[in-house]
């Protein structure tokens, strides 16, 4: 929302306009095909996954069970509709507009379970301190709606003390009907030591209550030992090293599942810091679980077999193939990736092929969903440039890092730059992965590689720059493009040049954006920072003409725009991008921070003091409202934000790179086109041919002066003589989209038109 209710000079849309008329972005998850080899990724722009879990829920009220995902590393919710597939059958269709309908209070873990017996799954999660928290699904038809349950889970700690159900924040509990009485119970490892399993039995008088009793502190007689990952004592056995000391710095992920058809619930269990997924056969009953010394199973029955994950396996019971049977999805249950595990393509799917009396599962070779997405491990940071000289923007994507080999940890956990070639047309882009380590940057052992393209040396072709972390600090590197305009790029990677910004702080995770801030024809630098001290979250470095490139950027403002969060704190890990997003002819600044908050600062170069900010820039077609971003719900994450017109319509698309290794894409709506169209009609503004190659002609009905700007706002052509006909020499300009701006010599009014240079 706007901090101050003012109208900026040049902002052509009133800030009080309705959602039907205001400029905004809307999700376009299925607009741009992405191919890997010959396979088209069906969920290309769903954002990737690190540690997903899944539940079923009817999202659109059509009577079909849809799919809701939750990623623990980001507390990000993703939604997929159960939709008809081309050629027949059903498919999962990524539909992000439903994500904002879920409460922002879902953090750490999320399970959709019907506790009030109304047929609508409710939402179980935790608070920041570990208390189990419940949101009731109050919708009667159509999309879900949640409100905080009138009472929260509680139990009698002593005869006189009522307590919340408090779990370790690393754990994922089982919220299921354990004893078969039709009410949801809670099973989890004890909070303090994490050695034994506690069973909270629901003792509410009727369905819909959340009153529990701590029925046992040693459910199924299972003890976790600390001697090794797969070390457990069961059925009365003791840990080999004696009674284990309290050591609950890690966590456990639990799922109760009848694996042998005896109508009680067995336990599937993953452990933080461990790769092995194990099962415990319940030799007792649903009401009184028990184990024997042979209950621990590493070769899990019912066809699940031996299951391993890079770290901390967890399981979801969910219908994935539309047959009404719950399948099992196994994926990491990590809340962070400090151990630098491989997070790409790590979801395993076991489809249910048996019956309740004879459970059976079959492993799916293709996993579940993640393999259908752009997923670069941790982090995704896109940039767009015509790599092969065909006049279409290709996509380069950096990442935070992923495992490049199976040996070691930090040394092989590296960032790289992936190259996706645009194999579509000028108006219908499509990207195909060509090289997952473009320019061989993985050998540099970088982390957190944020690419950006700009013309650094003013030779008319775009160069490549990027920030990357190495040796506990961030540097800004660049490679000049020595190719001619319109030719395939030729980056000189023999030398790894860097721009000396004279850092006097231990900054990391900084993100660059080059733009001509002061209008002198030279690109300046806006640097988003992780460490805002001294100063703020966005630094402005002015380009000094005539200086050597390496030392030509001088700090002009260390708290540019005085950017703040809604609670007046400094945003962290800020990623900036600049383009004319609303169509008023003025450059706008957009940023995303560590919690995924996207902010828009319209016509920022005309602002002084604290920049006016708007955050409700995302239009939701389900509610008809403009909303804040819902891209994450944890602090300390890394994101990327890029604005690029990839479909040649003159409006930039917004690509948001996520901690989860993938991207979301958004298109613009209600750009300010009518004002420009009226002015252009009055002057009879014409630009032809358009697209153009070597030359273009600009005609106006009144004498005008002309300026051609690239998408960073840099002047690339300019005339000082007012006339009605201008001949533009386009030689030396890179292929891409430019803005032709004409200014009336009589009254100073401005008209604009897009020019595509091929």
Automatic annotation (TrEMBL):
Gene3D superfamilies hit by this protein: Integrin alpha, N-terminal
Entry-linked SUPFAM superfamilies: Integrin alpha N-terminal domain
Pfam family, any one: FG-GAP_3
InterPro entries on file: FG-GAP, Integrin_alpha_N, Secre_tail
Protein name listed in UniProt: T9SS type A sorting domain-containing protein
Naturally occurring in which organism (per UniProt): Hymenobacter busanensis
């Amino acid at each position: 929302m706007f901090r101050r209710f003012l109208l900026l000079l040049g902002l052509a849309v009133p800030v009080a306009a309705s959602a039907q008329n205001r400029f905004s972005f809307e999700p376009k998850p299925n607009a741009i095909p992405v191919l890997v080899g010959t396979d088209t990724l069906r969920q290309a722009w769903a954002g990737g996954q690190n540690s997903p879990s899944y539940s079923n829920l009817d999202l659109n009220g059509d009577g079909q069970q849809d799919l809701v995902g939750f990623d623990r590393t980001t507390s990000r919710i993703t939604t997929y509709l159960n939709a008809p597939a081309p050629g027949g059958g059903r498919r999962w269709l990524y539909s992000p507009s439903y994500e904002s309908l879920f409460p922002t209070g879902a953090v750490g873990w999320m399970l959709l379970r019907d506790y009030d017996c109304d047929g609508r799954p409710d939402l179980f999660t935790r608070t920041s301190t570990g208390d189990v928290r419940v949101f009731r699904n109050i919708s009667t038809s159509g999309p879900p709606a949640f409100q905080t349950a009138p009472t929260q889970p509680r139990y009698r700690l002593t005869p006189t003390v009522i307590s919340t159900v408090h779990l370790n924040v690393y754990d994922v509990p089982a919220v299921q009907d354990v004893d078969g009485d039709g009410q949801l119970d809670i099973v989890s490892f004890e909070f303090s030591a994490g050695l034994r399993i506690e069973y909270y039995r629901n003792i509410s008088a009727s369905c819909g209550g959340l009153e529990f009793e701590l029925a046992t502190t040693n459910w199924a007689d299972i003890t976790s030992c600390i001697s090794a990952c797969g070390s457990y004592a069961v059925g009365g056995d003791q840990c080999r090293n004696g009674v284990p000391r309290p050591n609950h710095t890690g966590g456990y992920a639990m799922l109760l599942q009848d694996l042998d058809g005896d109508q009680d619930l067995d336990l599937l269990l993953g452990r933080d810091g461990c790769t092995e997924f194990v099962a415990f056969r319940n030799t007792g009953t649903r009401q009184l679980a028990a184990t024997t010394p042979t209950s621990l199973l590493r070769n899990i029955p019912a066809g699940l077999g031996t299951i391993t994950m890079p770290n901390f396996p967890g399981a979801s019971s969910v219908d994935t193939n539309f047959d009404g049977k719950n399948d099992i999805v196994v994926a990491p249950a990590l809340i962070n990736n400090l151990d630098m595990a491989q997070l790409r393509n790590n979801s395993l799917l076991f489809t249910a092929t048996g019956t309740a009396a004879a459970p059976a599962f079959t492993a799916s070779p293709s996993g579940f969903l993640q393999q259908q997405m752009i997923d670069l491990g941790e982090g995704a940071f896109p940039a767009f440039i015509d790599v092969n000289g065909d006049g279409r923007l290709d996509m380069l994507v950096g990442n935070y890092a992923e495992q490049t080999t199976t040996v070691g940890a930090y040394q092989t956990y590296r960032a790289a730059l992936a190259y996706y070639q645009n194999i579509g047309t000028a108006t219908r882009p499509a990207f195909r992965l060509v090289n997952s380590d473009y320019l061989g940057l993985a050998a540099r052992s970088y982390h957190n590689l944020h690419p950006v393209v700009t013309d650094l040396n003013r030779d008319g072709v775009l160069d490549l720059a990027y920030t990357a972390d190495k040796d506990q600090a961030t540097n800004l590197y660049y490679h000049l493009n020595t190719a001619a305009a319109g030719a395939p790029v030729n980056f000189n990677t023999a030398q790894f040049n860097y721009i000396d910004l004279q850092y006097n702080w231990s900054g990391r995770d900084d993100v660059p954006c080059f733009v001509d801030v002061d209008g002198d024809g030279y690109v300046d630098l806006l640097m988003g920072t992780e460490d805002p001290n001294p100063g703020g979250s966005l630094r402005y470095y002015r380009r000094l003409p005539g200086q050597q490139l390496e030392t030509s950027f001088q700090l002009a403002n260390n708290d540019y725009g005085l950017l703040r969060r809604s609670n007046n704190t400094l945003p962290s890990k800020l990623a900036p991008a600049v383009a004319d997003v609303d169509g008023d002819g003025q450059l706008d600044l957009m940023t995303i921070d560590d919690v995924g908050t996207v902010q828009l600062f319209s016509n920022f170069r005309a602002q002084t003091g604290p920049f006016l900010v708007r955050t409700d820039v995302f239009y939701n077609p389900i509610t008809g409202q403009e909303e804040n971003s819902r891209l994450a719900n944890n602090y300390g994450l890394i994101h990327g934000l890029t604005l690029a017109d990839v479909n040649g319509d003159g409006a930039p698309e917004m690509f948001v790179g996520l901690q989860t290794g993938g991207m979301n894409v958004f298109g613009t709506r209600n750009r300010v086109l009518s004002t420009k169209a009226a002015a252009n009609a009055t002057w009879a503004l014409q630009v032809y041919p358009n697209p153009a190659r070597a030359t273009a002609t600009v005609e106006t009905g009144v004498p005008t002066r002309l300026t051609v700007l690239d998408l960073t706002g840099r002047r690339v052509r300019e005339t000082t003589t007012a006339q009605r006909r201008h001949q533009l020499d386009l030689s030396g300009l890179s292929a891409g989209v430019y803005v032709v701006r004409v200014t009336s010599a009589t009254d100073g009014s401005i008209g604009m038109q897009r020019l595509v240079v091929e």
